[in-house]
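A protein record pairs a chain with a discrete description of its three-dimensional fold. The shape at a given residue is found from the number at the same position. Here is what such a record looks like in full:
>
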Amino acid sequence: MTTPTRRPKTYDPKNPSATGGRLRGTQLTLAYDRREICRDLNVKIPQGKVTVIIGPNASGKSTVLRALARLINPTDGAVLLDETDVRRYAPKEFARRLGILPQTSTAPVGITVSELVTRGRFPHQRALRTLTEADTRAVEHAMAATRIAELADRPVAELSGGQRQRVWIAMLLAQQAPVMLLDEPTTYLDVSHQLEVLELVRGLNQNDGRTIVLVLHDLNQAVVFADELIVVSQGQIVARGTPQQVMTGELLRDVFGIEARILHDPELTAPVIVPLTSVANTR
């Protein structure tokens, strides 16, 4: 006899730990087709914090994020969400516990902002997809939190890149999952919109206590917005900890191939990285 899985409680921002969000991978081997990306990888995501995964191009950082989101299955090891193998969750139950924003997202032709955000409620709806009061409140809260309420009736295709990214984040927020994973959410945005998106995501963590994992390229943005950094190189985690602990000249040289100066301004809480030259140019 199969024991039925229990439906998680509705996400409670006042008590996020009550609705789960403990995420980790144990002894993961990850591969695309026959090309192995990671082997014997162990990763634990701090609950209720902002974790940023960084690393050089093709280091495996997005692969790790996709495995945590069960978009790819490990050939060995397991990803555990609230101490349960993610492969054991039914799709809707998993989506109530974890949401992901991939690198590229395409909206259906003609869809409006409110219609797209409402799709975030799909994991909570029954077969007929009738919106409940809880669905309506969740959508309204998500649109208010991301400051897109005034765009509700606009077609998504007409929006700027920064506006569209806020809409996708609103859809993710409406999903009300305790864990949110975002893969390079600032790609193709100008600096102002990059900061807008990162400040928005950071606010969701601070105000709602959600566990958030980001993949970022910009090292200075990573150290500013992260509670914890995970550094991936050649498919392995080579460093993890606070930005102050992780960011060293040796790491920047060995992992990112740059000579850099690390400044510690007493008025700032995070170090500032000033790239000087590529290591290749010093040889």
